[in-house]
Write a structure and sequence with these properties.
Layout (H helix, E strand, L loop, with lengths): L1 E2 L7 E11 L8 E7 L12 E7 L8 E7 L13 E7 L2 E3 L6 E3 L1 H7 L6 E8 L12 E7 L3 H15 L6 E7 L24 E7 L11 H7 L1 H9 L3 E8 H15 L2 H13 L3 E6 L1
Parallel strand pairs: 10-11, 10-13, 11-12, 13-14
Antiparallel strand pairs: 1-5, 2-3, 2-9, 3-6, 4-5, 4-9, 7-8
Helix pairs in contact: 3-5, 5-6
Length: about 290
């Protein structure tokens, strides 16, 4: 995605405070980066994104190249430090469909190779945020895959670590290629495991049936395994639904929900009702 100079009005210089690999060495590299922005100038809500701007020149004469990343912190800041945020970055490579050559992703490799103390140009925040319901008796149904776990990390930290006393059901359905790539839920980083003892919180993990063929995680299957509770939650007027990550995560969610509803049309009507009642939100990328 290319970024125009006219859109840099909300830009900040962020300092990289730490960079930590949160997947084992023999799996896809994903890093947790903590950035410090000017205190008091940058405010955000869970579910919003920041743009990382790579200095140019780039193709077509653009001075910057932009990549959006979901903020993985709660709105009080990473570690409750104002102006401090974290993002989750997967090192990506792309295959040219014509030449077959393998190229590194610009932004992901730039960030994964950054060193502590480096200054990064950040813009934002952008996007509609995942609004936390004011009623702590509300149910929260969260579905995501890959680095789509990032906003849910911030969400869970907010409702349990900061607000506390959440009474409604909180269900997280999360997918990854393998069990070791369950971000924030593996041996390298167990942030979300800190909340497994919460009475109202449960997490359900889905892995790829054929990871060596890059098949997506079977989110639809784990949702189907818990269809009764999921469908009951969606029908309750106090349930809010959040979907984040790759588009294929949303497609698998729709597939599972269509089966529960009895047809695609029935689920489409239900989803439109949730949207109109401001109880459905998505944060997706390709």
């Amino acid at each position: 995605m290319e970024f125009n100079d006219d859109d840099l009005c909300n830009s900040y210089v962020a300092t990289l405070l730490s960079t930590e690999r949160i997947t084992p060495p023999d799996t896809a590299e994903v890093r947790h980066l903590v950035l410090q922005l000017p205190e008091g100038d940058f405010t955000f809500h869970e579910g919003q994104c920041v743009a990382v701007l790579l200095p140019g020149p780039h193709e077509f004469g653009n001075s910057h190249h932009m990549r959006l990343y979901a903020i993985a912190s709660s709105q009080t800041g990473e570690g409750r430090q104002p102006g401090r945020i974290s993002i989750c970055v997967r090192r990506c490579f792309y295959i040219d469909p014509v030449s077959g050559e393998r190229y590194p992703g610009k932004a992901s490799n730039y960030l994964c190779d950054a060193a502590v103390g480096d200054d990064l140009l950040i813009a934002g925040p952008y996007g509609a945020h995942f609004e936390i319901p004011k009623d702590p008796a509300s149910n929260l149904l969260m579905v995501g895959a890959g680095t789509g776990i990032a906003p849910f990390r911030g969400f869970v930290k907010r409702i349990y670590g900061e607000l506390g006393g959440w009474q409604g059901k909180v269900r997280l359905f999360y997918g990854a290629r393998t069990g070791m790539e369950m971000l924030y839920m593996n041996d390298m980083n167990k942030d979300l495991h800190l909340y497994y003892d919460e009475r109202t919180f449960q997490a359900f993990e889905a892995v790829s049936p054929r990871p060596h063929f890059d098949e997506p995680a079977a989110l639809d299957r784990v949702l189907a395994d818990n269809a009764r509770e999921v469908w009951e939650m969606v029908q309750e007027p106090k349930t809010h639904v959040y979907v984040a990550g790759l588009m294929e995560a949303a497609q698998q969610f729709d597939k599972a929900m269509s089966a529960m509803a009895g047809s695609e049309d029935a689920w489409h009507r239900m989803r439109q009702r949730l949207i109109s009642q401001q109880r459905y939100a998505e944060l997706l990328h390709e």
